[in-house]
Amino acid sequence: MAYSVAAIGDKESLLSFRSAGIRAYECSTRGGALKALKSAQEDCAVIYVTDEIYEMLSEEISFFDDKPLPAIIPFPGMKGSGVGMRLLNKSVETAVGSNILQE
Fold first, then answer.
1. Which pTM value belongs to this model?
2. CA distance to 11, 13, 46, per residue, from 26 (Å)
3. What is the pLDDT of residue 83?
4. Which domain holds residue 11?
């Protein structure tokens, strides 16, 4: 099976993904984001979501934490909340033993 990459978020945040040929799901509501996630998870190995969508669907996304695919990766959207950076800091601290990214 060939896997794809997708991105879920607001129109402005998805511009660079679209220009790179990545499937983009534009949404701004919880219902729309949930529908996009369900559609993308069928054949995507990686799903990028804006911070806002990540927080909106945190319960549904946590279901994939123990699964090998898809990897769901938050990125700062136009209204970024910083959740992506917090998760990166947590991952680095777990892997290295201390957060080497802190300023």
1. 0.81
2. 6, 9, 16
3. 72
4. 4-96
- The larger pLDDT score, comparing residue 91 to residue 41, is at 41
Cα 53 to Cα 71: distance, rounded to the nearest angstrom: 15
With beta carbons less than 8 A apart as the criterion, state whether 40 and 55 touch: no
Instruction: Pick the more confident residue, 48 or 87.
Output: 48
Examine residue 27 and state whether it is found in any structural domain, yes or no: yes
Q: Number of H helices and number of E strands within the chain?
A: 5, 4
CATH number for the domain including 90? 3.40.50.10580
Average pLDDT over residues 1-8: 92
| Structure tokens belonging to residue 59 | 């319960």
